[in-house]
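User: Hey, quick favor. My workstation is busy. Could you predict this chain's structure for me?
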Amino acid sequence: MRGRGGTGPVSNGIIELVEGGTRDPSVDEVMRLARTLNSPVGTQPTLREIVAQSVLVVPSDVAAALVAGRITDRQAQFAATTDEALTDVVAGVAGAAGTSPGWTAFDQGRTCLVSDLAAEQGYGAYPEQIVAMTPIRCVLSVPLIGDGKVVGVLTNYSHRVGAFGPVEVERAELLAEVAGLALTTASTEDRSLNLAKALESNRTIGAAMGILVERYRLSEDLAFDVLRACSRDHNRKLVDVAEALVLTGLLPDEQRNVHRLQGTKR
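Assistant: No problem, here it is.
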C-alpha cells in the first residue's frame, strides 16, 4: 500500500522523469485531460471516459471506476469498466472477501498498490482468488475526490507483476485528481437533468389530470387517483401513463377506474 506521491511533467504520456529527478505536472496535459473528462454530460458518461483514458494514461490492461456513498458487495449506482466480464469476477471476489485494494483506497482515501498479487499477504482471500480466477497480477487503486471528500475509486489492473512503478502511480493520481473535478461537475449536471425531468414529468401528469377533470368533471385529487390506479394495475410508471393519455387521449380501464373511485358502478 502506498501513500500519495508527488506530481510530474508530461509529454506523450502523462508524466515523465526529468533530469535531476524533479517532476512537474504538465499544464498542457492537465488541460487536455480536463477538457476530455468534462466533455461528457452526467456521471455515467464521465466515468466511461475516465476508464477509457486510464488504460492509456497509466497505462494498464483494464481500468474500472465507480462513484458511491460507500462500497459494498452490491453493484454501485454509477460504475464503468473497460472489461465488464473481468470486472464482474473481480467484484465478486472482493464482495466475498469483504476487502480489496479498491475498497481500501475508498475507505482510507489513499492510493493502494499491490505489485504482486501472488506474494500479497493482505486483503484476505482477495489476492489468492484473483490470481486463481483471472490473469490480473498487479493492482493500483486511487481514490476519486470531489468537493473535498472521497466520492469513488479508480482501479487499474495489469497482467504483469510490477507493472505499476512510481511514474505509473503518479499518472494514476494525476488522472484521479482531474477526474474528481470532472465528477463534481457531472454530479451537478445530473441534479440539473433530474430536476428538469421532474418538472417535465409534473407538467405531463398535470396535463393528463386536466383531461380527466374536463372529461368526467372530477376533482384534481380524484383525477390523480385514476392515473395512479392505472399505473399500478398495468405496472407502468405514472408519468408514462400520463404521457400516453396526453398523446392518444386513451387510458386503459379509464371508465372502470373512474366509476370505481367515485364509489359508483359502471
